Amino acid sequence: MAKEFQGEIRLDIRDSTPDWSPYLAGKASEGAPNVLIVLYDDTGLAAWSPFGGRIEMPAMDRLAGNGLTYSQWHTTALCGPTRSCFLTGRNHHQNSFATIAESATGFPGNNTHILMENAFQADVLREAGWATYWVGKNHNIPVDEFDMGSSKRNWPLARGFDRFYGFIGGETNQWYPSLVEDNHYIEQPYMPEEEYHLSKDLADKALEMIRTGKASQPDKPWYMFFCPGANHAPHHAPQEFIDKYKGKFDDGYEAYREWVLPRMIERGILPEGTQLTEMNPMSEETANPDDAVRPWDSLSDEEKRLFARMAEVYAGFSEYTDHQVGRIVDYLEETGQFDNTLILYAADNGASGEGSPNGMVNENVFFNAWPASIDDNLPMIDKLGTPDTYNHYPTGWAMGFSTPFRMFKRYSYQGGVCDRSSSTGRRGQRRAGRCAASTTT
């Protein structure tokens, strides 16, 4: 609502009183904190080191040790709906985002056009005096507005964000992404042979936005929605990060569940007495064969080697992206902003089972209902994670990384909706504990 003019207008300007307050930007209160939300994709509760998992997340570990680890963080089972809740604070059905944009239907709760009266947090904060930035994945624009000729009424700059840099759809190639800056598509700034990777590029752009904003208005707080492509397929990462995990998943996903469960209980993430769920819990009448898990001992030696390598690539992708988040945290510490920044580090849904029972070297076969073949996958084992593949691990690792729950992303069982989150409070909050949180009802 527009502010009321409080001046006085008379026939002669010399007798009039101006009032600039309705026209000037809002100003945050002194000492108002910055807000950084880091939102990963497709990550089960049992994947990351702060929760007992094998994937090392140094930046997240640092933040968890300085704040809170959430043991009951619940989302929806899909990315777009969860993200709509983050952006507005409203239930995904109220946002008309009960599904992802690509499967929208012409019904009120499902058309993926977020109502204008459902204000974005960024819109509220910008009016209150914050700079607002969105970096990384979007996937909250309806598909009829994806292209350059369409209306931009639901693009970030129209919904309260000063700047946007990232990609519009649900996923993109990490080596050769489809990039958007503000309201237009752009070419990537440099190539993989020059050490380009999207996670690094996004961190670079996030730092640039914070730095340039502070250079001109140092007292102005900022809000950043930082959404890397990780851990959504394709699982792409620099070789040195992948190689760090060589051999660490050779025991298989069933053994991983047995290994990680007591570690999660020891950390207080799960209560004493928690038991593992069935590996394939769906009945024959309801089960989708593409979501089945193949027992590890039924695999050939070559299949075990392939599946273990797919987990190594996923882990390397996750840690490499955490390394980029760490660069942002380092910068905040170096510039004296860390102690006055609220940081929430979370994921949008459970681990993804879209890789099928056999895994994939090209995830697009899933979206085209084409069966993934071991014969197709094996010859590409040494190229997983590189620009030559568009890879995704098998359903067994989605189950393993969602320990101890049933199923994974796309299912409303706990494996799809029980995720992980850590946060660090303003002014160096120095305590750890368990806390319940929810982005949906």
Write the layout of secondary structure elements.
Blueprint: E1 34-40, H1 58-65, E2 68-74, H2 79-88, H3 121-127, E3 131-137, E4 163-167, E5 179-181, E6 184-186, H4 198-216, E7 222-227, H5 239-243, H6 253-266, H7 301-334, E8 341-347, H8 364-367, H9 374-377, H10 395-401, H11 414-417, E9 418-424, E10 436-438
Parallel strand pairs: 1-7, 1-8, 2-10, 3-4, 3-7
Antiparallel strand pairs: 2-9, 4-5, 5-6, 8-9
Question: What's a concise summary of this model?
Answer:
This protein has 441 residues and is α/β, with parallel strands linked by helices. It has helices at residues 58-65, 79-88, 121-127, 198-216, 239-243, 253-266, 301-334, 364-367, 374-377, 395-401, 414-417, and strands spanning 34-40, 68-74, 131-137, 163-167, 179-181, 184-186, 222-227, 341-347, 418-424, 436-438.
Keyword list:
Alkaline Phosphatase, subunit A, disordered C terminus, elongated, alpha/beta
Describe this structure as you would to a colleague.
The protein is an alpha/beta fold and 441 residues long. The protein has a single domain (31-438), classed as 3-Layer(aba) Sandwich (Alkaline Phosphatase, subunit A). Helices cover 26% and strands 12% of the residues. It has eleven helices and ten strands. A ten-stranded mixed beta sheet has the order 6-5-4-3-7-1-8-9-2-10, sandwiched between helices. Helix 4 (198-216) runs parallel beside helix 7 (301-334) and helix 6 (253-266) packs parallel to helix 10 (395-401). It is elongated, with a radius of gyration of 23 Å. The two termini are 29 Å apart.
